[in-house]
Amino acid sequence: MAYNILIVDDSTPMRAVIKKIVKASGFNVGQFFEAINGLEAMEVLNHEWIDLALIDYNMPDMNGLELVEEMNKHDDLNSIPAVMITTEGSKERVEQFMAKGVIDYIKKPFTPEQIKQKLKYIMGETEDEEQRYDNGDEEFDF
Amino acid sequence: MKNKDMTMAMKNSISDVLETMFFLSLDFSNDLDILELWDTGKDPIIAAKLSFSGPLSGYAVFCIPKKSALSITADFMGKDEQAISDDQINGTVKEIINMIMGNTFSLYDPEAVFDLGVPELLGFHDFIKDLSDSEKRFSIVVEALENYLAFQMNIKNA
């Protein structure tokens, strides 16, 4: 199955890099969609079929958590797996993400292999719980 | 707040971010004055500022020569330098300060919650003004790409 992926990040280089890593990971991608903040992401979500949303936490106008809260208000959007990408890793913040329905989080800085393992786990392509938090020493050319 | 712990957290964070995500080989340079690092007449400097609040509040500034920022951005995005726009360079510089500060606070105190602002670009003169704007400051200079990159955290409620 090919997945449509929405990347939400206010940083143009970061969106490009995440896209490149996802492509290089061999993950079966249908289409990529991009948005620079939560408001723009809602526009995309209201018009396109999205299977997975990779969402930066720290964005202007509508941050990642506010976007997830907005998605939760809509029956057709609240089941889309949302993964938070964040520099912040405090226990309280992570609990806050999970309480709002975020399925998982990716902490920056990340390696390509970490993204690959997370996506595979989230989309049910591996059942190995250990791989979910594997730091990924494997050589990965992207 | 322990100065030594914060300095160590910043250094570890800078290494994590610049080596893991930007593939840089770097050395920490001690005892250098940030204001004397560059000949700004020859080489434009890009500076980005990020405010934070929480158990500590203040802001951090990161500055980097534009030609180094161009090189990092091109490597990061896997493109030729000629294909890189100013917007992409500025985006990379802002992303670097964002990642370094978020990671610094996680390393300094994994239990504490800090709120980071949205990174903004500063003119170099604003940067100089901001350098001495608070009582408690941590400066770290890194040598990479045959040039200097500088970080400073200014804390207002230490």
Account of the protein in words:
The complex is a heterodimer of chains A (142) and B (158). With 142 residues, chain A is α/β, with parallel strands linked by helices. Chain A has helices at 12-24, 38-47, 64-72, 91-99, 112-122, 129-132, and strands at 3-8, 29-35, 52-56, 82-86, 104-107. Chain A contains six helices and five strands. In chain A, helix 2 (38-47) runs parallel beside helix 3 (64-72). The two termini of chain A are 22 Å apart. Residues 132-142 of chain A have low confidence and may be disordered. The radius of gyration of chain B is 15 Å and the shape is globular. Chain B is of the alpha+beta class. The model of chain B has no long low-confidence stretch (mean pLDDT 88). In chain B, strands 1, 2, 3, 4, 5, 6 and 7 form a seven-stranded antiparallel β-sheet that branches. Chains A and B meet through helix 1 and helix 4 of A and helix 1, helix 2 and helix 3 of B.
Counting DSSP E segments of at least 2 residues, the number of strands of chain A comes to: 5
Radius of gyration of chain B from CA coordinates: 15 Å
Give the termini separation of chain B: 7 Å
Largest sheet of chain B: 7 strands, antiparallel
What portion of residues of chain A is helical?
25-40%
Question: Given the helix and strand composition of chain B, which structural class is it?
Answer: alpha+beta
User: Regarding quaternary structure, how should these chains be classified?
Assistant: heterodimer
Mean pLDDT across the residues of chain A is 86
Mean pLDDT across every amino acid position of chain B: 88
Count every helix of chain A, treating DSSP H or I runs of 4 or more residues as helices: 6
Which regions of chain B have little confidence, pLDDT < 50, spanning 5+ residues? none
Radius of gyration of chain A: 14 Å
The secondary-structure element order of chain B is HEEEHHEEHEE
C-alpha termini separation of chain A: 22 Å
Shape designation of chain B: globular
Widest β-sheet, arrangement of strands of chain A: 2-1-3-4-5
- Helical content of chain B stands at 25-40%
